[in-house]
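Progress report, Aim 2. The chain analyzed during this reporting quarter is listed below.
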Amino acid sequence: MPQTRSRIFDDFARLATDAAGMAQGVRREAETVVRTQLERLLATMDVVTREEFEAVRDMAALAREENEKLQRRIEALEGKLATADPVATTPPISRSQP
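Predicted structure tokens for the chain:
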């Protein structure tokens, strides 16, 4: 009888090990299927990738910095114009085209 119990436990342990291995295989397969379906769905939704998003974000930050520099430059030039001789700062006469 002890040998029978030992064999039953061995068989049960082997079955449990096989079931765990099979469950891991099923999990990996399910992950692959879900990932593939999500990638296909995102491709049809025209969603940007992280790399594209980060590139545009960096471009926007550079443009913002450039705009701030230009704004400061404009303000400095306007300040100079405000203190300059009014005759020298008279705007030119615009010529309209016929």
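Residues 1-45 form one domain. The first helix runs from residue 2 to 44. These observations will guide the mutagenesis work planned for the next reporting period.
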